[in-house]
Backbone:
């Protein structure tokens, strides 16, 4: 007798329901003590990440292993009685023994972020409307859709802190209304991943900027390159963003196009941020190493008070150099600097005073150094070209581009690593690639051999503090120090949050500065009107 697929599926569903019902009437020992969770039952580790709750627990070789189910009930009880992570870590250490303290800390992070220590949500009688700004939305439209009555007083309050035209599609918001009247009591808008706009009050609302708080975990990861850097990062369960960050960090030390080979390796000490128990992406890379062709490069984040935190090697030398090793992240060299090369289209030999990088159309092209855009447009055989003027008579040239970065214009200042255009095949070109050249005082020079001075090193008076940070980071990278005591300010303090937007800074600026900026805007408007 043949049974149709639909009837077979229905029969299986009925059997499963009956089995579940029978199972619910059978007493289970764990119902009295709570569910136990052994390390074998935790989510499997992804790659070689340590300290990341999403990576599960990785047993330490050559150390006593955790017996299945032994520490978890004790850990769970301690955590439920006192969610303080340090106290819980000590409790785990007492149960497991000092030899497995690293496993104890990982177990703690696993438990903490799986929700065991999360307090019950506070009951609220207010109505909450959450969503994301869509194209064409305004703050007034969002408030009117969620609330009843007038909302202009909320719009006016918000505009004093944050420009009305700066609300962007895709950014999340929340509107809290009074259930009795339907009037707005609170409005929140996430400006970016670090700060939000908050407006609250009924009759006379006030606006402010708040720092978005994250639960930050310090995780260590490591990998070996077999195919490519991006593939190696993916193999250990990490995001491609990590590969891009490593390229940016070591881009002045290593040519990721020419030098990377099979067997090279990397390790990184990176912050992973969680919000309401949900993973929200990477924070800062505190330290990293990259071994290329047998040579080990190190990078340590440090702030000596002279400005924003920067990366230095173990000697205190700045990793930031005048120029990047290459204007692309990862690709290949298709043609090198030479005084004689047969042109693939013209058919005769002539100098090729640049380096061609083969890459797919649309690959972002970065400025190799700080400077000013001196040319942006069509350049005959070069196709779409950008020329950037740097200090000391140095120019960098980027040709055959498919397009330019949005808003890029002649005379604009750009910073090192900023995306200025995209790989293409315009002009005299047989396929998508970037023709990159350097010119010093009007004479072309080989980019591979160009002199590339470093930025300022760590000041002498800060070297003792820097050395202590280096030692601490090396302990973390080696797995010799537990991640439990880490906070975002324990190694490299975060920059002070001022709570001001650019609009507020401009408002508080001296009158002469505001007048000067207004004058420049009027001149630009006049030129635009004249051209039209």
Residues:
């Amino acid at each position: 007798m043949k049974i149709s697929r639909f009837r077979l599926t229905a029969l299986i569903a009925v059997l499963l329901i009956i089995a579940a019902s029978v199972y619910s009437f059978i007493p289970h020992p764990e119902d009295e003590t709570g569910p136990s969770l052994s390390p074998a039952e935790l989510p499997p580790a992804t790659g070689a990440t340590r300290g990341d709750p999403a990576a599960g627990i990785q047993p330490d070789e050559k150390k006593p292993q955790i017996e299945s189910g032994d520490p978890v009930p004790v850990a769970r009880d301690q955590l439920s009685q006192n969610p303080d992570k340090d106290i819980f870590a000590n409790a785990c250490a007492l149960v497991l023994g000092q030899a497995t303290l690293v496993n104890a800390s990982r177990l703690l992070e696993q438990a903490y972020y799986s929700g065991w220590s999360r307090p019950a949500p506070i009951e609220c009688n207010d109505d909450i409307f959450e969503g994301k700004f869509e194209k064409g939305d305004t703050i007034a439209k969002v408030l009117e859709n969620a609330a009843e009555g007038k909302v202009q007083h909320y719009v006016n309050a918000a505009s004093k802190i944050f420009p009305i035209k700066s609300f962007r599609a895709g950014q999340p918001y929340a509107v809290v209304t009074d259930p009795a009247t339907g009037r707005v009591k609170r409005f929140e808008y996430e400006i970016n991943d670090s700060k939000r706009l908050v407006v609250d009050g009924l009759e006379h609302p006030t606006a402010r900027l708040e720092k978005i708080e994250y639960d930050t975990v310090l995780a260590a990861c490591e990998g070996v390159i077999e195919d490519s850097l991006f593939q190696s990062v993916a193999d250990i369960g990490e995001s491609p963003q990590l590969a891009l960050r490593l390229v940016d960090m070591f881009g002045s030390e290593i040519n990721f196009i020419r030098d990377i080979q099979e067997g090279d390796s990397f390790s990184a000490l990176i912050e992973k941020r969680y919000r309401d128990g949900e993973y929200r992406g990477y924070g800062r890379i505190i330290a990293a190493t990259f071994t290329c062709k047998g040579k080990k490069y190190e990078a340590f984040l440090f702030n000596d008070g002279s400005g924003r935190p920067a990366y230095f090697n173990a000697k205190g030398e700045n990793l930031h150099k005048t120029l990047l090793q290459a204007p692309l992240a990862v690709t290949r060299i298709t043609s090198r600097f030479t005084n004689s090369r047969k042109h693939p289209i013209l058919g005769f030999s002539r100098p090729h005073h640049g380096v061609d990088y083969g890459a797919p159309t649309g690959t972002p092209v970065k400025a190799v150094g700080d400077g000013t855009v001196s040319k942006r447009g069509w350049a005959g055989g070069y196709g779409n070209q950008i020329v950037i003027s740097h200090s000391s008579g140095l120019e960098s040239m980027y040709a055959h581009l498919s397009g330019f970065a949005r808003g890029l214009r002649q005379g604009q200042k750009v910073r090192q690593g900023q995306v200025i255009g995209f790989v293409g095949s315009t002009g005299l070109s047989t396929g998508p690639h970037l023709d990159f050249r350097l010119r010093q005082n009007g004479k072309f020079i080989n980019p591979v051999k160009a002199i590339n001075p470093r930025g300022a090193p760590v000041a002498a008076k800060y070297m003792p503090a820097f050395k202590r940070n280096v030692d601490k980071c090396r302990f973390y990278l080696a797995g010799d120090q537990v991640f439990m005591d880490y906070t975002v300010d324990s190694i490299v303090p975060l920059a002070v949050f001022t709570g001001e937007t650019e609009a507020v800074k401009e408002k508080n600026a001296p009158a002469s500065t505001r007048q000067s900026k207004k004058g420049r805007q009027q001149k630009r408007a006049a030129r635009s009107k004249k051209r039209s």
The chain has a mean pLDDT of 75. The two ends are 81 Å apart (CA to CA). The longest helix spans residues 5-25.
